[in-house]
Write a structure and sequence with these properties.
It is built from 10 helices and 6 strands, in the order H-H-H-H-H-E-H-E-E-E-H-E-H-E-H-H. The chain is α/β, with parallel strands linked by helices and 304 residues long.
Length: 304
C-alpha cells in the first residue's frame, strides 16, 4: 500500500463518519433489534472506493487482497455474500456522498459544465441479451464515438471542466440524450438553484429548438457544434478543445476505473458498481483539490 491511498482512505472515512453522525438518516435502514454490523457504514464506503481505485473487478480477488493487505485498516472484512448485500443496500448512501464530496470543493460552483453519455456494456452474446436479469432495461444501442453496437446501458454524465460529477443518470442504451438531460434537471431542481446561467458544452445530439428553449427556461445556456445544414453557432472557436474534456473524463472512468468491466448481472448489481466508480472519481478529485494537487483528476497515486 502507498501513503497516498492510505491518506485518501483515512480522509474519506473521517468525512463519511462525520456525515453519518450529523445525518444518521442517510445510513441504510436496518432493524432496531439485532446485532450491530462489525463493518461500519463509513468503513463500507471507504472499502468500496478503494476497491474501485485499485482496479478490482473480481469480488473474489478483492476479498483475497483485502484479507492480505488491508487488515490494518479494516479489522473485520465480510465474506463475499455479506459484502454484496451490504453494498447493494448502501446504493443511496453512495449517491448522497458523491454530492456531499462534490459540494465540499470550490469546483462545485463552476459555471461551465460538460454533458455526454457513454456506453456501459453488459453482455455480448445473444443468449445473454435474452436471459439476463437486465433484459428490458439493457438494450442494443450504437456508440458513434467508437463506431460500434453494444448491448447494455448508457451513463449520462454532467460534470465540470475538471471532471467533477455534477449529476448523472443510468438508462437504457436507446434513451434519447436530450430527454434524459431534461429529466436530470427536472428531478433535481435544487441543482440549478442560486446559480448564474450555467453553460452546457454538448455534442450534436443535443439539438432542437424546443429542447434549447426548455434549457433556457431552466436557466441554462447550450453550446454545441452546428449540425449539417445549420448556420454557424456562437462559440464554435472555443468548442473543440473544451469538448475533448468529456471524452477524457469518460476515458478515466473506462480505462482507469473499469466502467465497462463492472461485472454486474442484475439492475442492483450494475447500479452499485457504476456508483462505486463515480464515487471513486469524485473522491479522488475531492482529495486532490483539498490537498492542493496539481492535476485535479489524477488517479495515479491511488491505483497501486
Amino acid at each position: 500500500m502507498t501513503t497516498e491511498i492510505d491518506t485518501l482512505a483515512t480522509a474519506l472515512y473521517v468525512r463519511v463518519d462525520d456525515l453519518l453522525k450529523a445525518s444518521p438518516h442517510l445510513a441504510p435502514w436496518r432493524p432496531r433489534v439485532g446485532l450491530e454490523p462489525k463493518l461500519t457504514d463509513a468503513e463500507l464506503v471507504t472499502l468500496a472506493v478503494m476497491q474501485a481505485l485499485l482496479g478490482f473487478v473480481s469480488e473474489a480477488r478483492r476479498l483475497r487482497y483485502a484479507n492480505a493487505h488491508l487488515r490494518y485498516l479494516f479489522p473485520y472484512l465480510p465474506q463475499q455474500p455479506g459484502w454484496n448485500k451490504r453494498l447493494r443496500r448502501a446504493a443511496e448512501l453512495l449517491r448522497q456522498i458523491v454530492r456531499v464530496l462534490a459540494t465540499d470543493t470550490a469546483l462545485w460552483t463552476d459555471d461551465v459544465w460538460i454533458v455526454d453519455s457513454t456506453p456501459v456494456e453488459c453482455g455480448r452474446s445473444r443468449e445473454t441479451a435474452k436471459r439476463s436479469d437486465l433484459a428490458g432495461w439493457a438494450e442494443y444501442g450504437y456508440c458513434a464515438s467508437h463506431s460500434r453496437y453494444f448491448w447494455g446501458l448508457r451513463l449520462h454524465l454532467v460534470c465540470t471542466l475538471h471532471g467533477l460529477p455534477i449529476a448523472f443518470a443510468l438508462t437504457g442504451a436507446k434513451a434519447v440524450e436530450r430527454e434524459v438531460l431534461l429529466d436530470i434537471f427536472t428531478v433535481d431542481p435544487g441543482l440549478l438553484a442560486s446559480r448564474a446561467e450555467p453553460t452546457l458544452l454538448a455534442d450534436k445530439n443535443y439539438y432542437g429548438r424546443d429542447f434549447e428553449r426548455q434549457l433556457s427556461d431552466l436557466g441554462l445556456r447550450l453550446l454545441r457544434p452546428a449540425r449539417k445544414g445549420e448556420p454557424p453557432r456562437a462559440g464554435a472557436e472555443v468548442f473543440k478543445p473544451l469538448r475533448q474534456l468529456i471524452e477524457s473524463v469518460n476515458q478515466t472512468l473506462k480505462a482507469q476505473l473499469d466502467l465497462e468491466r463492472h461485472g454486474g448481472r442484475t439492475p442492483a448489481g450494475v447500479t452499485i458498481r457504476v456508483l462505486q466508480r463515480l464515487l471513486a472519481l469524485t473522491t479522488a478529485i475531492w482529495h486532490n483539490h483539498t490537498t492542493g494537487g496539481t492535476i485535479i483528476r489524477s488517479l495515479t497515486a491511488y491505483d497501486h
